[in-house]
Amino acid sequence: MKNYLLAAGFLTLSLTACKQSETKVLTSENPDGSVTTTTVETEKTTGVDSAKINATVDKAKEKLNTAGEKIDEAADKAGEHLEKAGEDLKEAASKGAEKVEKGAEKVKEDLKKK
Q1: Secondary structure letter of residue 114 according to DSSP
Q2: For residue 107, which of 50, 68, 80, 88 sits 20 to 30 Å off, Cα-Cα?
Q3: CB proximity list for 37: less than 8 A, separation 6 or greater
Q4: How many CB atoms lie within 10 A of CB 60?
Q5: Longest pairwise C-alpha distance within the chain
Q6: Whether residue 17 has pLDDT greater than 80
Q7: How many other C-beta atoms can be found within 10 angstroms of the C-beta atom of residue 15?
Q8: Exposed/middle/buried for 24, CB within 10 Å: 0-12, 13-18, 19+?
Q9: Binning pLDDT at 50, 70 and 90, where does residue 19 land?
Q10: Is 13 helix (H, G, I), strand (E, B) or coil?
């Protein structure tokens, strides 16, 4: 689960960091003979919208949390079933032990009679 979150985070960071900037220096000569220099900086971003990526990551987190909750519920149910099975086994062993003890008493009585 952590791997998915780390991968989604890395993808988000790498795509939001994909910006290119271009700097142009424009020089123009004024009528009085002076030179004016203008610097224009433009940013080009990738076609990927970081808001959409963040929304997708949030949805993925929600789905992962839901899946984790389902796994926890299944584990709890399995634990309850195992506990009940252990109690049933203990009860069956107890009944078996009683039968063995009764059988041993019968054999002991039979041996005394002989």
Answers
A1: -
A2: 88
A3: 25, 26, 27
A4: 14
A5: 141
A6: no
A7: 15
A8: exposed
A9: low
A10: helix
Mean of pLDDT over the chain: 81
Res 14 pLDDT > 90:
no
Question: Helix and strand tally (H, E) in the chain?
Answer: 2, 2
Q: How far is CA 83 from the centre of its chain?
A: 28
Classified as helix, coil or strand, 62 is: helix
Q: How is residue 53 written in tokens?
A: 């990526």
Q: Which residues pair with 28 in a beta bridge?
A: 36
| pLDDT tens-place string over residues 46-83 | 666 778 888 889 999 999 999 999 999 999 999 899 99
Residues 80 and 74: their CA atoms lie apart, in Å, by 10
Contact status, residue 43 vs residue 19, Cβ threshold 8 Å: yes
What percent of the chain shows pLDDT beyond 70?
A: 77
